[in-house]
Amino acid sequence: MTLRADRVSRGADGTLILDGVSLTPRPGEVTGLLGPNGSGKSTLLRLLAGVLAPASGVVTLDGRPLDGLSRRTVARRVAVVEQQADTQVALTVLDVVRLGRVPHRRAFAPASPADEEAVRTALARTGLADRADRAWHTLSGGERQRAQIARALAQEPRELLLDEPTNHLDISHQLALLALITELRLTSVVALHDLNLAAMYCDRLVVLGQGRVVASGTPDDVLTETLIADVYGVRAAVTRADDRPHIRFLGPVADS
Ligand SMILES: Nc1ncnc2c1ncn2[C@@H]1O[C@H](COP(=O)(O)OP(=O)(O)OP(=O)(O)O)[C@@H](O)[C@H]1O
């Protein structure tokens, strides 16, 4: 049992952003969320995180509607890394990562050895152990992104939601991050733009187009030349490499 969206819809300013979307991530797998800009990926992740409520449909955690659970209960299970996380300038990396422990601690209780161990492990896994005392505002974009991921890992979630986590990361850190996410064996939902990275690291993919699910399945099922042309308007040659689809982009689909 895990997180699940069942026919969720959500609008803003009189327009439908998500229209009857269902998403059933498999426990322990990485589900990639694909789709063009504005197709509804971030909105769906916010619904799954309980930050936004669906106008219709329901999001459940272990079968229980999210709106009936306390923020703390959800935060003990579900960690979220948003696209642009704003954090106060006066904090250090360590302070930010320690925030991940808040849902596990009683109010005003000092950090336990388990809290400190979770923070230390999260810093090590994201390659930030030597930057723990750095002030947030001195970090590069990629280091901030990794610190937000460390904060999410310190939360010791079972469900992990990431909105374009490879933004700002160089290729080496992109690969390391996605490898880490697959190794964690959490139930992860990851919005991605890079179709080749999605093919390499995701167990299953869900593609949104204009607020609806237009395809879902394994990378082999989903990442076809036809789908890429239909959803992105791009011609592509799809071959196979290391038992996964590999996509070479050829150019925009010609207007006819
Ligand atoms: N609060 C809001 N008010 C009005 N429109 C909104 C609001 N939030 C999102 N939208 C619109 O809903 C659509 C979906 O947005 P969303 O951020 O979920 O897409 P996305 O797939 O994550 O896009 P991207 O790949 O560009 O990050 C967009 O057209 C966006 O402009």
Would you kindly provide a brief summary of this structure?
Helices cover 32% and strands 29% of the residues. The chain has nine helices and twelve strands.
Structure, described:
The protein has 256 residues and is of the alpha/beta class. The protein has one domain: P-loop containing nucleotide triphosphate hydrolases (Rossmann fold, 3-Layer(aba) Sandwich), CATH 3.40.50. The protein has helices spanning 41-49, 71-77, 93-98, 113-125, 141-154, 171-184, 195-201, 219-222, 225-232; strands at 3-12, 15-23, 30-34, 56-61, 64-65, 78-81, 159-163, 187-191, 204-209, 212-217, 234-241, 244-252. The radius of gyration is 19 Å and the shape is globular. The mean pLDDT is 93. The structure holds adenosine-5'-triphosphate (ATP). Residues 12-13, 17, 35, 37-43 line the site of adenosine-5'-triphosphate.
Keywords:
single chain; 256 residues; Rossmann fold; 9 helices; 12 strands; globular
Number of discrete domains: 1
Strand content: 25-35%
Please tell me the overall pLDDT: 93
**CATH H level, superfamily name:** P-loop containing nucleotide triphosphate hydrolases
Q: With helices defined by DSSP (H or I, 4 residues minimum), what is the helix count?
A: 9
Bound molecules: adenosine-5'-triphosphate
- What does the main sheet amount to? 6 strands, mixed
- According to DSSP, the number of beta strands is 12
What is the CATH topology descriptor? Rossmann fold
What structural category do the secondary elements indicate?
A: alpha/beta
Q: What share of the residues lie within helices? A: 25-40%
- Rg from alpha-carbon coordinates: 19 Å
Low-pLDDT residue spans: none
Strand line-up across the major sheet: 6-7-8-3-9-10
